Amino acid sequence: MADVLEYLGVERLSPGSRPIADVTFRLLHSGSPFAPGSDEHVKVYYQDFNRIPALVYEPISSINDPKRPVVVYFHGGGFSVLSAEYPDPLLRAMATRLGCLVVSVEYRLAPQYVFPAAYNDCLAVTEYIMNNTDTLRVDFRRIVVAGDSAGGNLAAGVAQKLGKKIRMQVLVYPMLQAFDFLTPSCRENKEICPGIITPKTIARAWMEYGNISVKHIQDFLCNNHTSPKMKASKWAKYVNSSLHVLDVLNVTNSHLPMQLHSNQKLARQVAKLIVNPQFVPLMADSLEDVPNAYVITAGYDPLRDDGIMYAHRLTEYNVKLKFKHYPSAFHGFFYFINGPLQLKIAQTATNELIQFLNDHLIEGKY
Q1: Do 179 and 224 touch, CB atoms closer than 8 A?
Q2: Tens digit of pLDDT for each residue in 268-317?
Q3: Of 364, 313, 331, which is closest to residue 141 (Cα–Cα)?
Q4: Nearest CA among 242, 78, 265, 85 for reference residue 173
Q5: Which residue in 35, 104, 182, 263 has a CA-CA distance of 20 to 30 Å to 253?
Q6: 202: nearest Cα among 182, 175, 227
Q7: What is the phi/psi pair of residue 281, to 5°?
Q8: Tens digit of each residue's pLDDT (9 = 90 or more) over 128-181
């Protein structure tokens, strides 16, 4: 997502430039530069949760229901751009069609606020909702955490922390590991969406969120940021696409074995961070106690394999999983539901997700 600012010739990390990205995507999603507000179906307003702002979508149909489901949503944007309004098309559809409360968290952004600021904000809001269900008129048994891209990272991290206290996690083309930047999907889709996402912008997002100097970006892109010992460790197995991707997708074996060269000083600096599951959820040693999951991936996406590898690891721990792969879709496709650039694949994916949530949150079909 951050590539859009570079394409427009704007310094991507200036707080003053972030609204440009918001306006750009509003135009793409709805055809209007103005933030969508309340309508006849949903009240939309900002509210603080434990002193952290969030955008709330409250459906008119269930406004007096004391036991509504709630979806806590974390937006994408590489931890550094976009806002709680960005996923509006999906969030409005969920609130309207499911009658659930939707809370989109305005977490702090990098590089002004580095890890674990965003994670802490998302966890704090979720815990506040869990501890105030009566006041908020939501059902403590039907709390969902969800997010796209970097937000999928935050949702997975919060789900790991809170475990079965959460009903479900929804991860939309999530960004889950900073160990291997030469996965098949990174190499296959390196130039597929230059205005949206590339391996370079993924690496830069991780580095800014992790408070790592971007002068090392080429080392990250070549996997020189991990030591030979790390490349032979258990963590390398977690990102081995030959173990975790080939049986999910009908693809040839394009896994590259880890090369043993490295920038040793950099590798020592980042060694603990890039295996910390609060930073990179794919690297968790155990996924035994995490909630049920709905994982979405897109074929034309450098992050495709992150989601697939995580889905595969979830199945190894017998976590109930619905995995949806859209081979013809690209990173960011999910919000083109309405507006001037409607995509049938986005409408299909939205309908399938909402139907799944309806079955599991409203109808109780487990």
Answers
A1: no
A2: 999 999 999 999 999 999 999 999 999 999 999 999 999 999 999 999 99
A3: 364
A4: 78
A5: 263
A6: 175
A7: -60, -25
A8: 999 999 999 999 999 999 999 999 999 999 999 999 999 999 999 999 999 999
Residue 57 φ then ψ, to 5° = -110, 110
Token readout for 74 is: 């974390």
The two three-digit tokens of residue 267, written as one number: 């590798």
In the residue annotation, 219 being an active-site residue is answered as no
Find the catalytic residue in 30, 104, 149, 227: 149
CA distance 124 to 137: 18
Catalytic residue from among 301, 306, 312, 360? 301
pLDDT tens figures, 305-326: 999 999 999 999 999 999 999 9
The residue ranges of DSSP E strands in 32-67, in sequence order, are 42-49, 52-59
List Cβ neighbours of 220 (8 Å cut-off, separation of 6 or more).
Answer: 178, 181, 203, 206, 207
Strand partners, 44: 57
Cα distances (angstroms) measured from residue 177 to each of 132, 280, 351 = 33, 5, 28
**Neighbour count for residue 273 (Cβ, 10 Å):** 17
- The b-or-e profile of 79-92 (16+ CB within 10 A means b, else e) is bbbbbbbbbbbbbb
Structure tokens at 134: 């009566």
Structure tokens belonging to residue 173: 């083309």
**Virtual CA dihedral for 224, 226, 230, 232, nearest 10 degrees?**
-20
Cβ–Cβ < 8 Å for 227, 262: yes
Q: What count of residues does the chain have?
A: 366
Side chain identity, residue 112: Q
Give residue for tokens 């048994």: 141
Contact 297, 308 (CB under 8 A): yes
Respond yes or no: is residue 331 known to be catalytic: yes
Q: Supply 249's token pair.
A: 């997708």
Q: Is 242 a catalytic residue?
A: no
